[in-house]
Amino acid sequence: MAQLVMPFLVQTFMLRAPALINSGSSVSISSLGSTYNPVLAGGTLVLNAGNSSSTSISVTSAGGVIQSPTSGSATLSGALTGSGALTFTGTGTTVLTGNNTFSGGTTVSSGTLQGDTTSLQGVITNNSTVNQQRYVSF
């Protein structure tokens, strides 16, 4: 008598817990690691020189602040999504490379915000420096 052996595929899923960054709180992106989904709910996400994150960040209607490094640059390549507004502060450079869809608008209060037509979306109030890279296809 023949036996039919059926292998089982076991998959492990890592659930990412939301990391709420509420009004009055500041959280460094390097302290979040890869197991959290940051949710800006009025608080401040702090970037350090050399930070590079592909984690998506949700922005609630309360909005939030992204503070650039004191010097140098940091890159956010994950999508910024949600209905809130973002304010960029600091003295360094924040580079956005993700396909961002947040809809609350952008204010650059200090520092430099750099991106392209995909990452820089909507109305931008520029009180400092915005560098928009343009790519031309032939």
List the helices and strands and how they pair.
Elements: E1 17-22, E2 26-28, H1 29-32, E3 36-41, E4 44-46, E5 52-53, E6 57-59, E7 64-67, E8 73-76, E9 80-82, E10 86-89, E11 93-96, E12 106-108, E13 112-116, E14 124-126, E15 129-133
Parallel strand pairs: 1-3, 2-4, 3-6, 4-7, 5-8, 6-9, 7-10, 8-11, 10-12, 11-13, 12-14, 13-15
Widest sheet, order of strands: 2-4-7-10-12-14
In terms of DSSP E residues, the strand content is 35-45%
Head-to-tail CA distance between termini: 66 Å
What share of the residues lie within helices? under 10%
Given helix and strand content, the structural type is mainly beta
The coarse silhouette is: globular
Q: Helical element count?
A: 1
Summed over residues and divided by their number, the pLDDT gives a mean of 86
Sheet of most strands: 6 strands, parallel
Task: Tell me the domain tally.
Answer: 1
Task: Write down how many β-strands occur, each being a DSSP E stretch of 2 or more residues.
Answer: 15
Report the uncertain regions: 10-15
**Strand-and-helix sequence, N→C?**
EEHEEEEEEEEEEEEE
Rounded to an integer in angstroms, the radius of gyration calculated over CA atoms is 19 Å
Task: Give a structural overview.
There is one protein chain. It is built from 1 helix and 15 strands. It has 138 residues and is mainly beta. The protein has one domain (17-130). It has a 6-stranded parallel β-sheet. It has a 5-stranded parallel β-sheet with strand order 5-8-11-13-15, with no helix packed on it. The longest helix has 4 residues, at 29-32.
